[in-house]
Amino acid sequence: MAVRTEWQITHNCGHEIMHDLSDRPADKRAGFARWLGGRDCTNCWKAARDSDTVAKEEWLAAKRAEEQQAALAWAEQFEMPPLEGPERALAWGERSRFQLVTTAYTTLVTEGTWDEANWSTLEEKIRTVTRAGWWIDQRDADGTDLPELLDAATADDRGTENPFR
Known about the structure:
Blueprint: E1 6-10, E2 16-20, H1 29-37, H2 42-51, H3 53-77, H4 87-110, H5 116-128, H6 132-137, H7 146-152
Antiparallel strand pairs: 1-2
Helix pairs in contact: 3-4
């Protein structure tokens, strides 16, 4: 006797739908059917997701604006040079640089063993990398990796301005 492939599922939303689970391994079908029963059906899930799009977009825009303001204030306070690159990447690059550098400071200096002299040296290296795309590429890096990442940055990632303020 073969393991059934068709499952009648009653979803959380109350809809009963016949699901063809033949694309799953036989030993995974019952567990997946149980999991499906704990979720809304596809149509209800999509409707719930799509109905809140405006609120999510407004929240995200407000959050991005807040993050952008913090990044710009930080860049001004610590005399960071403006980033270079496509217009649409500049704001994202600014936020990425701000987040990575502040995380690195917290990890290396506040919670770590670095002193302010070590940080000042690293801060000068930070100022030399002005390509927005480089900072975006590093957005998921650990703060402790920043010194090594800056050492690996190429001439394409560094600006043409005089790095000595």
